[in-house]
Amino acid sequence: MNNEDLSLKLFVVLTRALSSIRKRAEEDIKELGLNPTEFAVLEFIYSKGEQSIQKIGQKVLIASSSITYVVDKLEKKQLIKRKPCPTDRRITFVALTDEGQAIMDELFPQHKESLTKIFEGLDREEKQVMIEQLKKLGYHAEKK
Q: Which top-rank group of organisms is this from (predicted)?
């Protein structure tokens, strides 16, 4: 197989694998009672602490118009709270409420366990190699 054909095959295999992994992860998240976007926002704040709405949108890869909607929904569920920036009125921070923290303390370990099951097809060394290879591929693709 020539290099162009290998690149095409790699794209197809990678796309299909990601689709399968994403589907399983989203099913597990829905079983936890959240949609994937809500969970991604909660997980980012849970892992990184209080964050600006803009940074959440960038890191969770949500359009700026959608992040406000997601934050509004999570705020109505009383899982997060908005906090104005004391030095810049244009910036609003988001933090977990006590209820949001308690829910994530319960849900996040379940999520980690689900991901562990999804990736059981690879051993530890294979996972480490794949992480490095995918990072290398991603960085190269960004340059092009």
A: Bacteria
> Dihedral through CA 25, CA 31, CA 33, CA 37, nearest 10?
10
| pTM summary value | 0.82
CA dihedral 66, 86, 50, 92 (to 10 degrees): 0
Domains with residue ranges and CATH for the chain:
3-143 (1.10.10.10)
